[in-house]
Automatic annotation (TrEMBL):
It is found in: Cell membrane. GO terms for biological process: L-valine transmembrane transport. It comes from the Bacteria. InterPro entries: Brnchd-chn_aa_trnsp_permease. Keywords: Cell membrane, Membrane, Transmembrane, Transmembrane helix, Transport. Belongs to the AzlC family. This is Branched-chain amino acid transporter AzlC. GO terms for cellular component: plasma membrane. It comes from Halarcobacter anaerophilus. Its main location: membrane. The chain crosses the membrane at residues 31-61, 111-134, 140-161, 168-184, 190-208.
């Protein structure tokens, strides 16, 4: 709640600072609900990018979530009618919680997954709406707000690192990211580092599994 409401607030502030109406924030947070992409979307609007350009960029920005989905196929198998929403509401933060917090066997898992996802979207929706409303009424210096999402990713990564005994995937991810920053343009860094990490993990899968 603290992470998502604050991040949503930052998004709302940033959105109205570019002279967009406050109600765009809740509409985007309800129908799009993609934290990183919503921050990026503000730049799309300012550049008056075409729909095809936006679609391609959005696909690359959110491609990482397809790998999240593959790893959750088994968990979501018996979620029934809730499955479409769980797919829609899967974000980096929700994925981090699903893979870090141990399931409580006393709870019905499909409803646990649903409410975890729904509350996260609710926190984001409320935070972004409040940020937009306050930002439309009070002048704010929004310099650096776009870094708030990166800061949350760093915290989530640290939590994953603490909970997993196997450190090899983190070393591979770090190496792939640094190499991608050096070798390819910044706008292609994310997708390059993801594919490079997957390739290295597959190549060294025996060593990785041995350390589990």
């Amino acid at each position: 709640m603290m992470g998502y409401s604050v991040l949503g607030f930052a998004f709302g502030l940033l959105l109205v600072s570019f002279d967009y109406a406050w109600y765009y924030a809740p509409v985007m947070s309800f129908f799009i609900y993609a934290g990183a992409l919503q921050f990026v979307a503000i730049n799309f609007f300012n550049l008056k990018a075409g729909l095809v350009d936006i679609a391609i960029a959005s696909w690359f920005v959110n491609l990482r979530q397809s790998f999240y989905g593959l790893s959750l196929l088994k968990r979501f198998k018996k979620t029934g009618k809730l499955k479409p929403y769980l797919i829609f509401g899967l974000t980096d933060e929700t994925y981090a919680l699903l893979t870090t917090i141990k399931d409580d066997e006393q709870l019905k898992k499909r409803w646990y997954y649903f409410f975890l996802t729904a509350f996260n979207q609710f926190y984001w929706l409320v935070g972004s709406t409040l940020g937009a409303l306050i930002g439309a009424s009070v002048d704010f210096n929004t310099a650096g707000l776009e870094f708030s999402l990166t800061a949350l990713f760093v915290v989530l990564c640290i939590e994953q690192y603490k909970n997993l005994k196997n450190k090899i995937p983190f070393l591979i991810g770090s190496f792939s990211s640094i190499l991608a920053i050096i070798v390819v343009p910044s706008d292609k860094m994310l997708i390059t580092s993801i594919f490079l990490s997957l390739f290295i993990l597959f190549f060294f899968r025996k060593e990785v599994n041995k350390n589990e």
